Amino acid sequence: MVKNGQVQLSALRNHVVVLYFYPKDDTPGCTAEACSFRDANREMQKRGIVVLGVSADSVESHQKFADKYGLPYPLLADTDTTVSQLYGVWKEKNYYGKTYMGVNRETFLIDKDGIVRKVWPKVKAAEHAQEVLETVDSLHL
Length: 141
Description:
By secondary structure, the chain is α/β, with parallel strands linked by helices. The chain is 32% helix and 30% strand.
C-alpha cells in the first residue's frame, strides 16, 4: 500500500476503499467525521474496507490528530493539494464573507476494481461512517 512514503491506490485493488477528504485536522466537524470512521473501523475491517482520510495538513499535524483521537487508519498529507485537485475537492470556499481555496468535505467509495461507485459531495460528519456501511451493503460490494 505504501511505497516511498506514498499510498498507491492501485495496490489496494481487491479492497473496497473509502477515500474521505476533510478540511482541517482537529476541528469540530472533521473530528466528528474522523471519530465516526474510528468507531466503525472494526466493522469496516471485517468487510475488508480500507479507510483513508486526506487533507492538506502536514504529516505532523495528522500524527497529533490521530494520536489524540486514536484514529486507526491512515491520514494522508496532501500538502500541495495535488490529490485534492485531481478529485475535484479543492474548491473556493466562503467563510464570513471571505473567499479562499480549501479542501471540501467529500467522500469517494471505490470498489475492488478501482472504480468510483459513489461520491458524497455533502457529508453529515457524525453519521457518515454508518452511511458508508449502508451504501456498501446496498451496492453489494
